[in-house]
Amino acid sequence: MKRVAACALLMLALGGCNRETKKRIAVIPKGQAHLFWQSVHAGAVKAAREASVEIVWNGPVTETDYSAQQRIVETFITQHVDAIVLAPIDKTAMVGVVDRASAAGIPVVIFDSGVDTPNFVSQVATDNFAAGKMGAERMGKILGGKGKVAMVAVQPGAASTMLREQGFEDAIKQNFPGIQIVDKRFGMADFAKSLGVAENMLTAYPDLDAFFASNESSTVGATQALKGRKSKVKLVGFDWSPTLLEDLEKGAIDSLIAQDPFRMGYESVQAAVKKLAGGTPEKINNLPPLVVTRENLKDPAVQLQLHPDLDKYLK
Fold first, then answer.
1. Exposed, middle or buried by CB within 10 Å (0-12, 13-18, 19+), for 15?
2. Do 138 and 53 sit in the same domain of this protein?
3. 111 has pLDDT over 80
4. Which of 205, 231, 234, 293 could be 210's S-S partner, Cβ–Cβ 3.0 to 4.6 Å?
């Protein structure tokens, strides 16, 4: 119903949806490498097709390069796109460009990760604090409420992963006094660096019981470290890829906290469409996370979330 209403409003506002009147919406992810962003892209394309708008997709190569992301936003402001849909790399560093876009009359939709300014029309993201708590609950269950845990974190300043990590730490402290978080190191959203910090913590803590990893790259790094040493240390990870799902099935990973990036891209573009049509999108749109285990991996609802048809929208 929301989708139909948004499309109808946009068509009325445009007086039709022919090629000459198509609105241009810039969609700017944090990076390009992870499957997560490809799923976001596919969802954004689906929403754009339904609303007969054009999306322009561009993001930095790496998820730590906020300077490159700033330049991309500035370019789109100069081009006078009709709306910007942005996943901020850093919640503070991206404030200036978000404020400038808003001041230029370009509505900004924030997705995946927050930003320290109110000058956006909608934020579409996983409830990351709740997702971190879900990870802690799973950790408490598999460790029987006691043990030593290390965290393969992402990077300082990334609001989404910081919330996950905080949710995990708070829930462990409040609900599982027998579990000790012995270390937390940053893999800087990089597969190789995450592998390195995981290996270093395995060496530093030979009696370690488990890892918590807070995004795809940190989960990949921790998994590779465990497989390389044939370690029995348990892993609760975050996000997914075909390789990570295979490692889950084989037992190298206990569980994965899964987001719905396809839906995130879809609803972010929908929010921009609604604003351009004169509507008021929901200011904060929290999407629920999902705990994926070997036991529920084959459930139809889980499979639908994990395997959107990317080829249908990206080829």
1. exposed
2. no
3. yes
4. 234
Please state, in angstroms and rounded to a whole number, the distance separating the CA atoms of residues 290 and 240: 11
pLDDT at residue 18 above 50? Answer: no
How many C-beta neighbours within 10 Å does residue 142 have? 16
Report the DSSP beta bridge partners of residue 148: 180
Q: Give the CATH number for residue 70.
A: 3.40.50.2300
303 located within any domain: no
Please state the domain count of the chain: 2
- Please report whether residue 297 resides in a domain: no
Q: Tell me if 281 sits within 8 A of 122, measured CB to CB.
A: yes
Question: What pLDDT does residue 33 have?
Answer: 80
Examine the domain organization and report whether 168 and 23 are in the same domain: no
Structural domain range at position 102: 2-127+260-288
pLDDT band for 20, please (50, 70, 90 cuts).
low
Cα–Cα distance list, 138 to 85, 171, 199, 225, 243 (Å): 33, 11, 23, 21, 21
Strand 255-258 with 290-293, pairing: antiparallel
Indicate whether 12 pLDDT > 70: no
Which residue, among 186, 183, 187, 189, has the nearest Cα to 210 in the 3D structure? 183
pLDDT value at 14 more than 70: no
32-60 burial, b for 16+ CB within 10 Å, e for fewer? ebbbbbbbbbbbbbbbbebbbbebebebb
Report the predicted TM-score, pTM, of the whole model to 2 decimal places: 0.87
CA 148 → CA 169, 203, 208, 292, distances in Å? 13, 14, 5, 23
Q: What is the pLDDT at residue 19?
A: 46
Residues 160, 163, 166: CA angle, nearest 5 degrees: 150
What confidence category does residue 133 fall into, taking pLDDT thresholds of 50, 70 and 90?
A: very high
